[in-house]
Amino acid sequence: MPEAYIVAAVRTAGGKRGGRLSGWHPVDLAAKVLNELVDRSGIDPAQIDDVIMGCVGQAGEQSTNVARNAVLASKLPESVPGTSVDRQCGSSQQALHFAAQAVMSGTMDVVIAAGVESMSRVPMGSPSILPRKNGMGYYMSPAIHDRYPDVPDFSQFMGAEMVAKKYGLDKEALDEYAYRSHQRAIAATRDGHFSEEILPLEVRAADGSAVTAGNEMHAVDEGIRFDATVEGIGSVKLLQEGGVITAANASQICDGATGVMVVSERALKAHGLQPLARIHHMSVLGHDPVIMLEAPIPATLRALQKAGMKIDDIDLFEVNEAFAPIPLAWLQATGADPERLNVNGGAIALGHPLGASGTKLMTTLLHALKRRNKRYGLQTMCEGGGMANVTIVERL
């Protein structure tokens, strides 16, 4: 079977809600990533066959096919098409899978997989906010209610609480994990580990104009709490009485854009491209939509089986920190080495820009493999509706 290779990977630094990226229209933010991927690869942008872009909040400024709009806002020619993907938090990871599948099928040679989410400008849940009248306007249809009669809503917050309870994870363990996420992100930032993967951008005011004072640039993940303490994290109020989840041991709302360029072996040779990694395995799995966030566990175990690998064959893991119970339960169930997991911190410290997080994690994983001179990396994340993508890459 033909192979698929990643030749460039980049992300913006995460922006806090109402923070340093909130003045950027998400289309223009995504366009900057597309331009940077072209610049880093050195390829003629007219050779790009497609742009596949993950985005969860496909409403308002992110509506009407945000991928195509990003192409039109970039320096890519009009001949380059674009399509938008929603697999909830795994949207841009799925975009990567679609890009690799297109290349491996032989129908395309150069595809950009990307993601964008401005959670400041398009608040979480915006696509589902419609007038509800006479039972209309709600995503859960009568047939879904018939299948899940005791479930008024599929809630990720409740899913996180259920995972914590199932795996015996108390609030102290979750808060300690959250603190570790910040400590690892702080160390990675101070040691310059993110410098190669981050595209610095000017800070823009709410009206979109540049903030010119001191030529200020956004190049550091804004959500990292450099003064974080376990005590401070532990003092944050519970989201549910009697529960264990707080805003401090869950992922941060975040603005950002990310992307990777995927090419065929034919394109490598034709354009003189240098591969960062080869796609070794891709899969996606559906699971219980009520507990919802447990899906990365069976998805990882199945992926390893399909790839003919064991957990210890993988050098580094990226498991999205949507809520602290998810990576902790994943570690418990898979037996993976915690020192190989989210080595530069995760979404609790760095932010979770929903549809952009898939290629964000992949970008960080690829650069971490290179810096540590390691071979195999595995990425997975929980997704709304009870799903999980798994991607295994081999660094070259």
TrEMBL record:
Lineage top rank: taxon: Bacteria
InterPro entries: Thiolase, Thiolase-like, Thiolase_C, Thiolase_CS, Thiolase_N
Domain Thiolase N-terminal: 5-265
Keywords associated with the record: Acyltransferase, Transferase
Domain Thiolase C-terminal: 273-395
A Pfam family recorded for this sequence: Thiolase_C
Family that this chain belongs to: Belongs to the thiolase-like superfamily. Thiolase family.
PANTHER family: ACETYL-COA C-ACYLTRANSFERASE (PTHR43365:SF1), BLR7806 PROTEIN (PTHR43365)
Listed name of the protein: Acetyl-CoA C-acetyltransferase
Source organism of this protein record: Noviherbaspirillum album
